[in-house]
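worker-03 picked up job from queue 'complexes'. Input manifest follows; two sequence lines, order preserved.
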Amino acid sequence: MTMARDITLRKAAGPPPDDSAPGTAGTPGAAAGGGAAAVGLEDVAVRFRTKKRDVTALHEVSLDVAPGEFVAIVGPSGCGKSTLLKLVAGLLRASAGAVRLHGDRVGGPRHDIGYVFQRAALLEWRTARRNILLQAEMRRMPGERARARADELIAMTGLSGFEDAYPHELSGGMQQRVALCRALLHEPPVLLMDEPFGALDALTREQMNMELNRIWRETRTTVLLVTHSISEAVYLADRVVVMSPRPGTITEIIDVGLPPERDYTETLGRPEFREAAGHIRGLLGAASAQD
Amino acid sequence: MSQSVVPTPTPSPAATPEPAEDVAGVAERGRPGAGERFGRAVEAGWRPVVLLGACFAVWWIIAAAELVEPYLVPSPGDTLDVLTGKAGYLWQHTWVTTYETLLGFAIAVAVGVFAAVVMVYSSTVEKTLYPILLFAQVVPKIAVAPLFVVWLGFGITPKILIAVLIAFFPVVISMVTGLKAVDPEMLQLSATMGAKPWQTFAKIRFPASLPHLFSGLKVAVTLAVTGAVVGEFVGANEGLGYVILQANGNLDTPMLFAGLLVMSLIGVVLFVLVEIAEKLLLPWHASRRDSQVTTAY
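worker-03 finished. Artifact:
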């Protein structure tokens, strides 16, 4: 644990990397407290033109995420959850509305984020450590610092002993840990995760959830997590955004109202958890019943 | 009622255990010892060796029993006599053919890889080049060969050119496929890392395309031998193609067979060299391909 604590906590808010002010992480649904929201979506729409017709993937989506906040996005397939993350990352352009990261308009791929996909997307010819260091090489981070940071993350995510293993020698859960380390190497103020544990078995998934909760508390990163799992969303997030498909809109935003530090079994038994999960299940059920 | 006892299925100890727990979740690493490796090589190698031996035995029987006239099918002994007795002569011409093949192959790889990279990065170039490439491929090289001799004379240049032409296509196709097969999420990730295009190419795209390239190289290297020999057939005074034509003219079938054997041997050796290069350069790919799971299912 002490090893993990050594990691420089980066204040999530504000463009200048200034470590003097305390982090504002963990306050559920908090207003951005004067500073700009870490992520801001304002009446965002995304329309795709296919040969046959125009498809509206997102319609009038507005969402503010406070620095250090953990927001989960749930919804049925095709509701534009992944599209939303790609917008924030600048990998996709909004057809209307504004996407902001720390107050600046997103107008191209952003470098101040970490991205984790459902598939680990590791380079097969690199060991776990060198996959993590890819982030540093692309950014031309000083080697010494990058290696030290990689070692910290390897220890924090429980990858110690597997640093020199190649991806095909690692299980799905371990591969996803490598992907997470790679996404966190440059200490991004915002972490975007697109169903990161969707391909894992239930036990591994629970374990990864617990670790993500701990990593989030330790790094104070703002997290946007897209997931299909209601319990994962409620267990991890300060707020859960429920979306409905065609066109993708936000149905409701639920404040989970649990403390940031969450024991897995204990949290799942709490009334707040059950209430939020039940409510979300109801919303999603209603959405799919309309189909 | 039958007396047969149905054996209850017991979990066989040979079955690999499911990676149940994630924490310890590293698949067994394939690092066999020297003895085990030798055992595996024998295991993998004995079948083709036996088959080849059987072919030679059939050849020997046919020749020894004089089922076919000796001037049509020489005995293995006569062929071996030529191989040893005229080793100097054969070696000299083998070297010429090998030289033409290697040079042609090298040029084909350099030009092919370059063309593939340009085509992948510019769809305009791709659309412009592709029809010409296809045309160059479908034109029978054997038919073009005389033209090259007319243009370039009897030296080794037309042979190299034909080897290039014939080996070029599999290189381009495999490299284009490889460069396009890169994981789109990897490229998106690269964009969020602020990578420059050449960084993405050098660190992601190019290495990811190498397995595809190598399967093209294996085809190309054997074709390059054919190309060089075709060039020699059309007009040459050295090389194995020339040796075979001479032997044919003199009805010297032992020499003809010797030439054929050496020619095939060049192809096999070059193919194996490419495979060794692949294993050395892409150990990650080879180990995945050779894994029990990926080959059995």
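worker-03 released lock.
Strands of chain A lie at 39-49, 54-65, 70-74, 96-101, 104-105, 113-116, 190-194, 222-227, 239-244, 249-255.
The longest strand of chain A covers residues 54-65.
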